[in-house]
Amino acid sequence: MNQLIYILIFLLVNVQLFAENNKDSLRVESLLRNSESFLTVNADSSLTYATIALQLCEQNKLNSLLIKSKFLIGKNLQNKGKHQEALDVYIPLQLQLLQNDKKDTLELKLYTEIANCYGDLKKTVKALEYLFLVTSVLEKDVKSKANDYLLANVYTSIAISYGKSGRHEQAAGFVKKNIE
């Protein structure tokens, strides 16, 4: 009988912990959606939502949402023209994504935004490095039309980067590749 009571208490405590964690997870997801929706219209509000989400993730060990919170903070910094600060957020995220088994479109977004930051900082070689990472990921998975669209955009970005650095033959090669 005592064992049954201990089992019931154990289950009740764990259900309560799960419910709290799930509630916090939903709260963070809501904050992240708000941050994304304010990203282009009100950078300060977007940054506030992402920062609160990050704090909740750290307090409640919500690792799956932690990366997305940090990514949105980097995106906000980038939108404010603080490209080096955004890179300071983005670069460590690469390691976290590599350690995370669940890779999704965030990996592509991260590499693309890193390339954009380097491009805005006039570091064309580094920008190209990340654009080629994006193409390698996209070329592995050529199942969807959306991928074709993304790949075309990346090829265009590569052509522009080559053009800006005076490497016109390589730029023309990617323009041709884009047309094919």
Question: What can you tell me about this protein's structure?
Answer:
- Helix content is 86%, strand content 0%.
- It is mostly helical and 180 residues long.
First and last CA, distance: 74 Å
**Strand content of the residues, in percent?**
under 5%
Which secondary-structure class do the elements indicate? mainly alpha
> What is the overall number of helices?
8
Helicity range of the residues? over 70%
Characterize the main sheet: none
Q: Rounded to an integer, what's the Rg over CA atoms?
A: 21 Å
Low-confidence stretches: 10-20
Shape: elongated
- Overall mean pLDDT score? 79
Number of strands: 0
The topology string of helices and strands comes to HHHHHHHH
List the helices and strands and how they pair.
Elements: H1 2-38, H2 43-60, H3 63-79, H4 83-99, H5 105-120, H6 124-140, H7 145-164, H8 168-179
Helix pairs in contact: 1-2, 1-3, 2-3, 3-4, 3-5, 4-5, 5-6, 6-7, 7-8
